[in-house]
Amino acid sequence: MASGSDGGEEAAESPDSPAGKDSASGSIEVEQKFLFGPDAVQKLKGLGAMPEASVSFRDRYYDVPDWHLTLADHWLRQREGAGWELKSPLRPLEGAATSRGQQNLPEPPAGARSHEPQHPPQPLEGRTHLATQYQEVTCPRDIVARVCGLLGVDPAAGWQSDVARAVEELGLQEFASFVTQRCKYRLASLRLTVDLDEMDFGYAVGEVEAMVLQEQEVPEALERIQELGIRLGLDMKSPIPGKMSVYLCKFRPAHYEALMRAGLLRKVRAAADEEGN
User: Fold this and answer.
1) Which of the residues in the chain have pLDDT under 70?
2) Contact 62/175 with Cβ under 8 angstroms?
3) For residues 109 and 169, is the Cβ–Cβ distance under 8 A?
4) Where is this region: Disordered (predicted)?
5) 138, 142, 154, 158 — which has fewest CB within 10 A?
């Protein structure tokens, strides 16, 4: 088994979590991915991991036609049974602002007022470890505000609590849709969860995950993830492509290449391609 990370494609909550729960908005997810073999469950149980859920759900991801949101490392997802979530990087990359003209963004809806979009994030190659860190926003009002900020428009009155309406009227389009079969385990001693995911397009990947409320808690969460990786015998130094990398490589190659050039996705190696076929 090997470990790794990818873009902000994954979610922390289970599919039956309350959609749009304000108290969850702004949580920080720290995770590291790994490929798992047939002995993964046995190893987890040997460390005291308790099975928490076995569920199946469909994820749908949305962006504008020129991929402005995902190129800024912001991932807008609608999960079956859970609702909408926006995952965004913790810190922007300073000095790299882009304009609507440079990105060829669609014109804002009539009456909208233009704003400068936020800065793009730090690419994967600029990070000092393989674990990814994303803020998870589930409050509909906050999701709409952040998406509009990136696209340079003011939120319309009817969008505040209706993400679906905002998505439609802003011209966002579905660029990925797939079903995941997930087995979730919890290690109470390390305050970690482990998800073993198998997707309907033929790829399987696991992830070790910690949830924190403040950025100051991230280093300690990284230590716990590394400790579990050692105890499971994982290679924590080899990058592993996540499900979104493999999906886009297989079904949306132009989008995949654009995100690769931006340094936001892990390269899909031959081994991942073979497993995904």
Assistant:
1) 1-26, 91-132, 270-277
2) yes
3) yes
4) 1-26, 96-126
5) 158
